[in-house]
Amino acid sequence: MTNGETSDVANLSSTLALDTAYSDYDLWRAHKSLDDELYKLEREHRPIPIDVLYARRILSVARTKRAEGHATGRHS
C-alpha cells in the first residue's frame, strides 16, 4: 500500500469506528459478510475485487479501534 492508501484506510476506519449509527455487531456482521464473499470468490476461482479487500481492511481496523477504546475515548 502507498501512504495515500494507508491514510485512506486509517481515516475511513476512524470515521466508521466513531459512527454510533453502527453497533459492534453491525461491524462484525459486515466483516463476516465480506469474509463469506471472499471465500465464495476464491472457491469459484473468480477474481477478487480490490474494493472488497479495502472494505474488509477498513472494517477490520475500525473494529480493532473500537475494541481498544480509541473510538470512544475509553483508553485503558
What's the count of strands? 0
Low-confidence spans: none
What is the CA-CA span between the terminal residues? Answer: 30 Å
Task: Summarize the main sheet.
Answer: none
* DSSP strand content: under 5%
Name the helicity range. Answer: over 70%
Word description of this protein:
72% of the residues lie in helices and 0% in strands. It is mainly alpha-helical. Helix 1 (3-18) packs across helix 3 and helix 2 (24-43) packs antiparallel against helix 3 (50-68). It starts with a helix and ends in an 8-residue tail after the last helix.
List the helices and strands and how they pair.
Elements: H1 3-18, H2 24-43, H3 50-68
Keywords for this structure?
globular, mainly alpha, 76 residues
What's the short version?
With 76 residues, this protein is an all-alpha fold.
